[in-house]
Specification:
4-stranded antiparallel sheet, elongated, alpha+beta, 31% strand, 3-stranded antiparallel sheet, 185 residues
Length: 185
Amino acid sequence: MACPLVAGLCGLMKSYKPSATNILIEGCLKNSAENIDNLNSGFENLMGSGRIDAFRALNCLTGKPSVNFSNTINQGCTSVQINFNDLSVGSNILSYGWTFIGANIKTSNLKNPVAIYSISGVYTVIHSASNEFGTNITTKNIDIEINIVSATLSGTATINSGQQTYLKVDFRGKSPYSFKLNDVN
């Protein structure tokens, strides 16, 4: 049933604002949709962008920007680098604003900034976008876990040239791990 509803809303949006591009219409549809993951346990992130919201989708075309963002976490040994990606949609977005609580930078005006966190915790990120109709803001909490990885070799053996032996390696921290042993003569 979703396709006829979405197609109908796309037609309504195009008639409401004939100059709207397909990219703007698609962005408004996706960012105005109501997330229904919590209503469909076991199917999280498998149900598309959610349930369409015609009122919010139409408002996105001629009102303040609909503000949203995603992030990609790049795990390091002693810190986490997070790439923030603006997903805001609306007519003629003029400026962006970001506030990072607990990161290496406090604020940014870039569309897609990068922040580094060095302590595990839940951090608040505030994102805003502005156009000629005004400014909208969204706030999300990001759960950061610093993954400190260590390895311990144990066992005692004298290895003569050409012989084999077994070493025990205990890893701590989250996988994936990589291990390389060099022959040291």
